[in-house]
Design goal:
The structure holds 2 protein chains of 2 kinds.
Chain A: H1 2-36, H2 52-62, H3 73-90, H4 108-130, H5 133-164, H6 169-175, H7 186-199, H8 211-214, H9 224-249, H10 261-285, H11 291-320
Chain B: H1 8-16, E1 21-23, E2 31-33, H2 39-49, E3 56-64, E4 79-87, E5 92-100, E6 106-108, H3 117-128, E7 131-133, H4 170-180, E8 199-203, E9 215-221, E10 224-231, H5 239-243, H6 252-256, H7 264-278, H8 284-312, H9 318-337, E11 346-347, E12 350-351, H10 359-382, H11 385-391, H12 399-404, H13 409-413, H14 421-424, H15 445-468, H16 494-505, E13 513-520, E14 525-532, E15 538-544, H17 546-558, H18 563-572, H19 577-581
Parallel strand pairs in B: 2-5, 6-7
Antiparallel strand pairs in B: 1-2, 3-4, 4-5, 8-9, 9-10, 11-12, 13-14, 14-15
Helix pairs in contact in B: 8-9, 8-15, 8-18, 9-10, 10-15, 17-18
């Protein structure tokens, strides 16, 4: 019975934690951006503005949830749900601390890649179902972008898999007890980081939204709670990628000091939040690439680089026996 | 103005075209009258065949002459059409006018000679009902298609209260909306290619990248731009018509609203024109104050340009830094003038107030701060790799094309031609200052942005020279027409008191004549062409703005670009809707 209780608690935690972080990010990102941009950001509601999250929630829930008459209604409603479900399911396989995971699958990494591929449907269907030109252009861009960036995103992780010899995320973290993979697999880390930016559609890869060109891209026609799901979906995805980077390259829960589960969780959280801050810093400092430049960069630079990385890693592992 | 061969060109024209007569103008621009039948030939000669031809159609407008009383021997006619050509090679202007009779005047078009005449002729049709036979698209430009009458004709009401009630029943509303719909076939655009349909994207009038109410109808082949049709007029407020109903003095605040980002740079050409008509010499202190504020506003306007331009490239932070710096500059403006974006500070004959105590440390602080910032912007924005990828080689323009389309300001200078009126035809005392004219090489988006950045540095140099050598003395001329007149003398004799009273209550009566005041505005050559009929109000106020020409040229630099580049090219033109639509 205590075993079942513990399991339920973990599930509850895994459901609530990303949501809390994502909701907190709606405030945190704005505060951080404001810091980088020499202004205040939301600082009125509650201490340092933290209750802004609540205020936004009330606002967005009471907004009219409008479905344009020209939209394809069932698909239009389904699209925002897909992004939340797909990104959320990935959290199931992440191992946060020894024994703290919903499902420690032996193919955890593949499951993550599969789920992240699913989320492209959300953006594609949203743009298509909106039946609006701006949304269509946005979703066209996102399909091209996400499909081509998926290719080397998977490849960039193969170096880690070769080194750890497993797809099991828990085993990968345990293999990093001595040396974090960011050192031997720095190129893999770099490529996966960039792919993560592209998958979450953040500057400089925010072409599907591109507010100065496409108004709001694929979610131009969305409002109310459906818009909020895209909005939250983006933050959940950022949290997911930061967590994956932590698991795969930054040694997961490993850290100096006590080995208790709580400390391990603390390390995991710290690393994830630091990575999220880097995501936000990048958003504040770079301009947006053009569609053809983005594709060129993906296919001509990142793909060969990730292949070379895999080859070299494989060769070194074989040579060492 | 130091302009060569001012009268030669008229003599040359009279030799070739016997019917041509000359007109004296207060601004010294050679002005010739030609018969309607001959005007095309005269223009063809000037624009194409003359040695060092007048390649730029600087302006084309009309005057409703029907109620004018002082015409000083000009040919009689109900309407005059004014063509203003400019030759950068000669550094000279020439104005050609022609008189038309009747209620439905007509002239042959010159769009085949000079494509840039397109919008100007449409505007003349829109505002005066003058038809240009052979114009490819004789449609309204600024007013909506369902408008009745021609707004700048004297019989057209100038105020809302002079018109009847304005009913807008639902069916009429829908019909109007339907007329605004973009129909590709009306513009001669194909709706389908060989085995595909074109996508027509309606960008604006409400879109983040149009920075105002500009509408672009874009024909797309996938992500590639095939054709762009700009649709303007959503911001039209009848500024020229208002000029005919405001006294010379009370029109100054209206000028601020034309290019609402560059404050006194709007007032500058207007007061120059009025002063030319009235023959007022501005005292030195006022001249230097004007230049200092004009350059501050150039910096302010360029900061807005750069911030929004970079934002359109997807860079979200710099706009905040630029606007913070702009706020510092505006705090100086508000300390000196009391206003911010609309300072209404220049006066006929000088400025409204003397500089307040403590202005100099404020200005010097700003100079020191801004110089540091400019270096930082160069490092953090211009040297960014993605920024260069997005701007270098995009929407290139040659000097010849730029001149043919009437481009000026940074757009022209980015092509490599150092054409800056402050150097070429110094006005208001600019010949006393030491500065350079930054130019580009390729005339692309990158160069246009960089020219803006370097111009800010030069403006800071000029401001510094103003602060170093601010002359003492009066800040407004001792002239009976200077407004408001200096008060002190009114306490001594009744005649001056009466003049003062009339000048303040009715406004000054400016002697009859025609004059253009022109400055190098933040966005390019910017002028007010005023016709005075010896009244307290202008008889005709023509505002020639640089953005109008620049937006007309947009389609020619954006064909074949991708949508993001179209947005970058558009932003790099540094336009303001208030200035395009007036």
């Amino acid at each position: 019975m205590p075993e079942l209780l513990r399991y339920l608690l973990v599930i509850l935690g895994v459901v609530l934690a990303p949501l809390t972080i994502a909701a907190g990010l709606t405030w945190g990102e704005r505060r951080l951006l404001a810091l980088f941009q020499d202004r205040y950001g939301p600082n009125r509601v509650g201490p340092a503005g933290v209750l802004q999250v609540l205020a936004d929630m009330i606002k967005i829930l009471t907004k009219e949830d409008w479905v344009p008459p020209f939209a394809d209604r069932p698909v239009f409603v389904l699209a925002p749900a897909i992004i939340i479900i797909a990104t959320y399911l990935s959290f199931a396989v992440i191992v946060f601390a020894p024994g703290i995971a919903v499902a420690e699958l032996n193919i955890g990494l593949l499951f993550f890649l599969a789920m992240s591929s699913l989320s492209v449907y959300s953006v594609a269907l949203a743009g298509w179902a909106s039946n609006s030109k701006y949304a269509l252009l946005g979703s066209l861009r996102s399909i091209g972008q996400m499909l081509s960036y998926e290719v080397f995103m998977g490849l960039s992780l193969m170096g880690v898999v070769v080194m750890a010899g497993t797809f099991d995320l828990g085993a990968i973290v345990r293999a990093q007890a001595g040396l974090w993979y960011i050192v031997p697999q720095f190129i893999g880390f770099f490529i996966f980081f960039i792919a993560g930016l592209a998958e979450t559609r953040r500057i400089p890869f925010d072409l599907p939204e591109a507010e100065s060109e496409l108004v709001a891209g694929f979610h131009t026609e969305y409002s109310g709670m459906k818009f909020a799901m895209f909005f939250l979906g983006e933050y959940v995805a950022i949290t997911l990628f930061a967590a994956m980077l932590t698991v795969l390259f930054l040694g997961g829960w490993h850290g100096p000091g006590s080995q208790s589960t709580l400390v391990a969780l603390g390390w995991f959280l710290l690393k994830t939040l630091a990575l999220i801050a880097v995501f936000i810093l990048i958003r504040a400092s770079l301009p947006r690439l053009r569609y053809d430049q983005l594709m060129e960069f993906g296919w001509k630079v990142m793909l060969p680089l990730s292949l070379v990385n895999l080859l070299v890693t494989g060769a070194v592992v074989l040579w060492r026996g | 103005m130091v302009v060569e061969a001012q009268t030669d060109i008229i003599a040359e024209l009279r030799g070739r075209f016997p019917g041509v007569t000359a007109q004296e103008t207060a601004d010294g621009v050679p002005t010739a009258w030609a018969a309607p039948a001959a005007v095309r030939d005269v223009l063809r000669y000037l624009h194409r065949d003359a040695p060092r031809p007048f390649r730029m159609l600087y302006d084309l407008t009309a005057i409703d002459e029907r109620t004018r009383t002082h015409r000083d021997g000009q040919p009689a006619g109900d309407f005059s059409v004014v063509y203003h050509l400019l030759s950068p090679e000669r550094n000279a202007d020439v104005r050609v006018k022609t008189a038309l009779d009747g209620d439905a005047p007509s002239l042959p078009t010159i769009t085949d000679l000079c494509p840039a005449a397109d919008w100007y002729e449409r505007e003349a049709w829109d505002m005066f009902g003058i038809t240009f036979a052979g114009h490819p698209r004789p449609r309204r430009l600024l007013l909506p298609p369902w408008w009745e009458g021609h707004a700048l004709r004297k019989e057209h009401p100038a105020r809302r209260t002079e018109m009847g009630p304005f009913p807008l029943p639902d069916d009429a509303h829908l019909a109007y909306e339907e007329q605004m719909r973009f129909r590709p076939e009306e513009w001669g655009l194909a709706t389908e290619g060989e085995d595909f349909d074109y996508l027509f994207l309606n960008i604006g009038p409400n879109h983040p990248a149009t920075h105002g109410v500009l509408r672009l109808a874009v024909q797309l082949d996938g992500q590639e731009v095939v054709e762009v049709i700009p649709d303007i007029g959503f911001h039209h407020r009848g500024a020229e018509k208002m000029g005919e109903r405001q006294s010379w003095h009370t029109y100054i605040p209206y000028t601020d609203r034309i290019d609402y980002l560059s404050g006194v740079l709007n007032e500058f050409p207007y007061v120059l024109a009025v002063e030319a008509l009235a023959g007022i010499a501005v005292p030195d202190r006022a001249r230097v104050i004007r230049i200092m504020l004009a350059e501050l506003f150039r910096v302010i306007s360029h900061l807005v340009f750069f911030g929004t331009f970079v934002q359109d490239l997807g860079m979200m932070s710099p706009v905040f830094y630029f606007f913070t710096d702009r706020e510092r500059a505006l705090s100086i403006i508000s300390a000196i003038t009391g206003g911010r974006m609309h300072p209404s500070y220049f006066r006929i004959g000088g400025v409204a107030l003397d500089l307040p105590g403590g202005w100099e440390p404020m200005v010097r602080d700003f100079l020191a701060h801004m110089r540091r910032q400019l270096d930082e912007y160069l490092a953090s924005v211009v040297r960014n790799g993605i920024y260069r990828l997005r701007t270098v080689g995009i929407s290139e323009l040659t000097s010849a094309q730029a001149i043919a389309w009437g481009a000026s300001g940074p757009v022209l200078r980015a092509t490599g031609l150092a054409w800056d009126l402050r150097k070429q035809q110094p006005y208001g005392g600019y010949d006393q200052f030491d500065f350079e004219v930054p130019v580009g090489t390729r005339g692309d988006t990158y160069d246009r942005a960089l020219v803006h950045l370097e111009e800010m540095r030069q403006s800071l140099r000029i401001i510094e020279q103003c602060a170093d050598a601010m002359p003492a003395g009066p800040y407004i001329a001792e002239h009976p027409l200077a407004t408001p007149p200096p008060k002190a003398r009114t306490l001594h004799d009744i005649e001056t008191l009466i003049d003062h009273f009339l000048g303040v209550s009715w406004g000054p009566v400016i002697p009859p004549g025609e004059a253009m005041g022109r400055v190098e505005g933040a966005k390019g050559m910017y002028s007010y062409y005023l016709v005075s009929d010896s009244s307290t109000m202008s008889y005709r106020t023509r505002i020639r703005t640089p953005s109008f020409a620049h937006i007309q040229l947009l389609p020619h630099i954006s064909r074949g670009l991708m949508v993001p580049d179209l947005i970058a090219a558009l932003a790099s033109l540094d336009f303001v809707l208030g200035e395009i639509d007036r």
